[in-house]
Design goal:
Helix content is about 25%, strand content about 25%. It is built from twelve helices and 34 strands. The strands form nine sheets. A six-stranded parallel β-sheet has the order 10-7-3-2-1-15. Strands 16-17-18-23-20-21 form a six-stranded antiparallel β-sheet. α8 packs parallel to α9. The longest helix has 20 residues. It is elongated and about 80 Å long.
């Protein structure tokens, strides 16, 4: 079969996306988001042999009990009585309507695994065959779950029949599908014959993925989503012959195929991710820890699992599942603690990722931009240099000469754009950075990222990174920036304006307009204690927090203590701030200023001045 794949590649049967220049991530979305916000939540699933209704519900409950957010779950193959008849295997899933409703109450969306193949032994095969609903008059092809024929998407009657089968699942509240990659198998038909004539492999694949996305969106509304491959390698031995699976306009949660649970597998996953970005797919990620297993008791090494989770944290799609063990608490308390930080960090970046993905889609671009061969920009303002080998440091080329890249967690370290530096990367840390002068929107719902606490859930959090950096090259004017972004409640567009003047008396003016009447928490890094803070033209008094908590670090926060953060002090100060509608506090050690602004209108304004 691989030989036939390579033949089609050599004949140029690819569909290569047009290269386009993206606007700033902060520019206003050109139209409503084309996919749901939950595409950027942390998603989990069990391998097909482990999945059933009880284990799926327990999996989600266990993640939540460990303080790890979950926004989506995939029910993998073996949920059906036959491939693919859409009839639930009630021995494994006795009541999917109840299961989906239970998960929905926990804000967890459900998708089901599927393909467009109908096996010979499936209960619906003969009906489709007798009605002429398959390609090539029902010629069957062997694939990894048996032998079957392909639905003919060029036959409207076949599609209507197929939709009636899909309704069995969609009517239970399921909002999407994991559309697996059987479409390249159509090449084994040699001539691909549908009701309306000959089809190319990509034409068939695009029909397959588009129909699942479009019909599900018609039934389930804007919450509809499919997982599908953007780019994967047809020859897994050499990882050379890349194939574009989904059409770009429905691939908003792409996973880049199945990899082995080793550093080489992690490297292959990163290669596929970056190739997907080069071909302008919007959002994607990979199976954390690799889909396949090794012969170890857990099926994958602890260090590989963690390094993979670090990459997943900073991908538009963060999903964890596959064969063998993937539950982070099974790898030890230290891995659990670090995984929790990563899942929380990814989840709270939802507004940034959603704004980035929406803008990228309409611009014909990707949420990621490759930098060299093994690092990338996530959006415009986050730079990531993954660790894909068994090392604790790596050389990093920092992009964009003139920029300053500030540590994402340890905000006291920074590197100049255009420089090449060896960066420490102990096992617990991935080199990740935010751009100076950037404004990154977040929805903080957990204390484990140290970007807020549980009381931040009702606020919009805006991370402003080192706004004073531009003053190093200018004595009078630092920066003016206006960005539009999607806020994390109704997903409406808000406008954020930042103006920073350099002089003997520095002044930073921050304003949120067109937003909901909610608190705004500003986290401003790289600044000394201010002379004065005004919110909506009213002088605000600093919240002075006297620490009374024990100086020992609570379990779950050990990582942050290694990043130069006084964890008990920050926790206490944030709690004290939330007792006030407007307030501010400053961390001397980290040079971070926190400002809380609450307005009864759709706008709020903050002015901060310094005497330097």
């Amino acid at each position: 079969m691989i030989a036939r794949f390579l033949l089609f590649v050599s004949l140029g049967c690819w569909l290569v996306s047009t290269l386009m220049i993206a606007p700033s991530v902060g520019s206003a979305p050109a139209a409503p988001p084309p996919y749901p916000a939950w595409a950027h939540t942390h998603m989990v699933w069990l391998g097909n042999s482990d999945g059933n209704q009880t284990s799926t519900l327990q999996l989600v409950d266990d993640y939540l009990a460990h303080g790890i957010p979950v926004g989506g779950v995939d029910v993998d193959s073996e949920w059906e009585q036959g491939y693919n008849n859409f009839v639930t295997n009630t021995q494994k899933y006795p009541n999917i309507t109840q299961m989906v409703a239970t998960l929905k109450q926990k804000n967890v969306n459900v998708i089901f695994w599927i393909t467009s193949m109908i096996n010979k032994d499936s209960s619906n095969f003969q009906y489709g065959l007798s009605h002429g609903y398959y390609l090539n008059d029902g010629k069957t092809i062997k694939w990894w779950h048996g032998e079957g024929a392909f639905l003919d998407y060029s036959n409207p009657d076949a599609v209507t029949w197929w939709h009636s089968l899909m309704d069995n699942i969609l009517d239970a509240g399921v909002v999407g599908w994991k559309c697996d990659g059987t479409d390249p198998y159509v090449m084994e038909l040699v001539e691909i014959k549908g009701k309306k004539g000959l089809l190319t492999p990509h034409e068939y694949g695009h029909m397959y993925y588009s129909d699942f996305f479009d019909y599900t969106r018609q039934k389930a509304g804007p919450d509809a989503l499919i997982w599908s491959r953007p780019v994967d390698a047809l020859d897994t031995d050499t990882d050379y012959f890349y194939w574009e699976y989904s059409p770009r306009n429905v691939c908003f949660a792409g996973w880049v195929g199945d990899q082995d649970p080793e550093y080489h597998g992690l490297e292959i996953a990163l290669n596929h991710i970056l190739e997907s970005a080069r071909r302008k797919y919007v959002n994607f990620g990979s199976d954390i820890g690799g889909y396949r297993t090794d012969k170890s008791p857990l099926g994958r090494p602890r260090d590989v699992f963690l390094r993979w989770a670090q990459l997943g944290c900073f991908c538009p799609l963060m999903e964890n599942g596959g064969q063998g063990e993937h539950r982070p608490w099974m790898f030890g308390d230290d891995i659990l603690t670090l995984y929790r930080v990563l899942a929380v960090t990814h989840t709270e970046l939802g507004p940034y990722l959603y704004t980035t993905g929406t803008n990228a889609f309409y611009a014909g671009d990707s949420s990621m931009t490759p930098v060299e061969v093994d690092s990338f920009l996530l959006g415009k303002d986050i730079f990531v240099a993954p660790i894909i080998k068994n090392v604790t440091s790596r050389m990093v080329l920092f992009p964009d000469e003139g920029a300053l890249w500030v540590g994402y967690w340890n905000k006291t370290i920074s590197y100049k754009g255009g420089s090449i530096k060896e960066v420490d990367a102990p096992l617990e840390e991935i080199p990740a950075f935010s751009r100076s002068g950037s404004i990154i929107p977040m929805h903080v719902t957990s204390p484990y990222s140290m970007h807020g606490d549980v009381t931040s859930e009702k606020a919009i959090t805006l991370l402003v990174t080192h706004p004073m950096h531009a003053c190093e090259s200018s004595d009078t004017h630092a920066l003016d920036r206006t960005v539009s972004m999607l806020e994390p409640f109704e997903w409406n567009t808000i406008t954020v304006t930042m103006s920073h003047k350099c002089a003997s008396s520095h002044a930073l003016h921050l304003e949120v307009a067109e937003g909901p009447s909610r608190p705004v928490m500003w986290m401003i890094t790289g600044v000394p204690a201010p002379r004065a803070v005004d919110v909506d033209n009213q002088l605000v008094t600093e919240v002075v927090h006297t620490r009374t908590e024990p100086t020992t670090i609570q379990p779950g926060y050990e990582f942050h203590a290694t990043q130069g953060i006084d964890v008990p002090s920050r926790q206490g100060a944030l709690r004290a701030m939330h007792n006030h509608d407007v307030s501010w506090t400053h961390e001397t050690d980290t040079q971070i200023l926190w400002v809380k602004a609450t307005s009864s209108s759709s706008s709020s304004s903050v002015r901060i001045t310094w005497n330097l």
